[in-house]
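User: My instructor asked us to take a sequence, write out its structure as tokens, and then describe one feature of it. I'm not sure where to start. Here is the sequence I was given:
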Amino acid sequence: MSNIVAIVGRPNVGKSTLFNRLTQTRTAIMDNTSGVTRDRIYGQGEWGNKFFTLIDTGGYVVGSEDTFEDAIRKQVAIAIEEADVVLFVLDCMVGLTDLDEEFALVLRRYKKKVLIVGNKADEPAQGFNASEFYSLGLGEVFPLSAINGSGTGELLDEVVNHLANDGTEDPYGHLPKIAIIGRPNAGKSSLLNVLVGKERSIVTDIAGTTRDAIDTVYNAYGKEFVLTDTAGIRRKSRVHEDLEFYSVMRSVRALENSDVCIVVLDATRGIEAQDVSIIALAHRKGKGIVIMVNKWDLVQKDTNTAKVFSEKILEKLAPIDYAPIIYTSVLEKQRIFQVIEKAIEVYENRQRKIPTSAVNQKILPEIDHHKPPTTKGKYVKIKYITQIPATCPTFVFFCNLPQYVPESYQRYLENKMRDHFTLEGTPIQLFFRKK
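Assistant: Let's start with the prediction itself. The structure tokens for your sequence are:
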């Protein structure tokens, strides 16, 4: 059973700094710009042998010019509904504002346990300013400094007093991780929202809406796994703001932490250089790959359109030719569940363990049929093959002259491995060792 603690408040009071402090991570992006956090971000915390899930939320605001204002308020409301304890963060340096008082009225309606956090109390004088927060009538006030950590111990002592159970350390750490990645505005957040059936990520037509990598636990086809929505990845020359730079870094980290990447392409734009770079990065990191071509409903089609499109993708990706390609429309809900089903299959392929006897029985005859080419008059003889433990299927070929196995022949062997065994969507590694 997971305990949930939500961090809420108006913009720029230090919610993300507090989130990073309590989770001892740098998951949430911090910046002096108001409205940096937009979606709900989850992390794990622990205090006094009690474990809890922390939720960071966007700044609650009313009547601003921010396009995302209404969507952020919805995300905040969902976080409060999920929470066992709510941390209402206020700014000791600014003092109580009209927006704080308005938000306090909103919190009262939820009948949740609320703890008031007087943040930015970096010095004792600023801590004294927190006393005015008692006027909200929401109970105890905890002055602290999220940036240097002073006062957070007293807050956490109180938080764990209100948790019904000991919780679970990283309850989702054992689950398969599937990252949804791709260029900005290809439909990644829309896919996540359709899959989970609620607004998990804020969706607009503005490129760069998603800034943090957002995890959601999802259950389908009898499997539970973690889906991660990410910020769009674009070329470094196109990344102008610091905020966007950190968003892209988090997307790359989400890719690195995943087991399978669903790479979302925009059918109206085709496969672009940056899409190829994303897929090549996933390949180099040994991740499973599913290519999802979104917005297929907007493409004029005949009987060969998908075939020609696939050929263009594979031509640009060569020699990476093992990823399944699925044509979808998130808007029309066409084939999106097929994408998830395929991602689960690819995860299982990536975990696949093939008995040594089966590998030798199938592949040694293929080697006899098409022997390695001679190099400098020397003949390569492959005697024996076995799989070794690794993050993706990895095989060692024992032979007399491993240094003389050319890359073209290694590709032949990889293709034969894929012909005989179910390895769609996963990279495989081949090593050659002296017998």
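For the description part of your assignment, you could build on this observation: The first helix runs from residue 15 to 23. Try explaining in your own words what that tells you about the chain.
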